[in-house]
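Aim 2 progress update. The chain analyzed this quarter is reproduced below.
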Amino acid sequence: MARIPLPVLGMDLLSDEVEMPAGTVREAINVDIDRSGQFRRRDGYTPVAVGTGFTHAHAFGGKLLVVRGDALLQVDTRTYASLMVAQIGLGPVAFTEYNGRLYVVCAKGLLAMDPGRDLATPAGVQLPDALPEVQARDSGTLTPGRYTVAISLVDGNGEESAACIVGQADTSAGLRLTGLTVAPGYRYRAYVTPPDGDVLYLAEEFEALSADYALTVYPGGALCETLDLAPFPSGHLVRAYAGRIYVASGDTLWFSEPLRPHLIAPRRGFVRFVGRIRFVELVEGGAYVGDSRGVWWLGGSDPSAWTQSLASSAKAVHCSSLLVPADQLAGDGQGAQAVWLSEEGYFAGAPGGVARPLQPGRIRLSPDIAGRSVLLLRGGIRQVVTLTASSPSPIVGVALDSTNEGYPC
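Predicted structure tokens:
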């Protein structure tokens, strides 16, 4: 009776069927193999919700968020009751957490959700859809001339929306804003040019409790710094690092302004790549970004002054990246590393721009599939597990394992 040895060396996807090294297999389904050759069967699962069409999942605040159709649902993991927290439209969805807040990028733009809340709302402060009109007023202390007026909205934490010009008026005394949207808990800032001027200065700040407001003070405050800014567009990837938020939309990586994490500068606050951006991960000293050419290292702490160099020519699997803490992966201990799945297996990108393959010569995948990765600890083995899918191919999984000592296997 022939005996087949256990595949202590793991999977080999490249060798011919008749030339595979002893101790390897083509597939290892629902089995974990550690670097010493020990085997463990993976735990099973329990269905918690019946139905189809669930496309994304993310745990946040002790509850599970899932996407079904155009709705973002919150599932109580004890009762499995679901509650809709946002209408997000149809399209890609991605999550990231920063400063205790969850950010969701989707077809509707960038949403934010705080712990303990049951609602995801547009990130930052948004001006009302209905904007006021500017009219001349017979009383006031303004110098005669033509004035341009812009307004913004400020919340209770002092965060300001993008400013918007609402009109011009010729006056010899004062100005009036009519048709203001009442917004309790918020304040309006009115920016006005000097007479016949073109630079906006803060004139007044007032509670958003009335539909009309008279502007009678000469504009002598701070310059308007939010006039040419805007909220994030829709996108398919989102990350946050060092006070900024980054959103990938098609071939464009948008980044927020300093000290204004929810506003971008549409004229300058972006970097373009070739083809759809496949992943984005921020580490100390820069960022790793994958596109149709390979993976790029963008060096520097200021995205407006990044320097770009090729980190790897292996194309990354779409959406397959994550950050792994320094103590969870073998390396030089510089800090958290970016890990992504590529056509040549997993890569780790260290701070400073050095990317290294973790399974050289063992794996070949199509770079045109998409995947989602997670870091797990099961049975003493740390694993980066990536669920991948491409139509019409069936769903498959790929895993990178390490022992508790942090050595990749």
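The mean pLDDT is 86. The longest strand covers residues 145-154. These observations will guide the mutagenesis experiments scheduled for the next reporting period.
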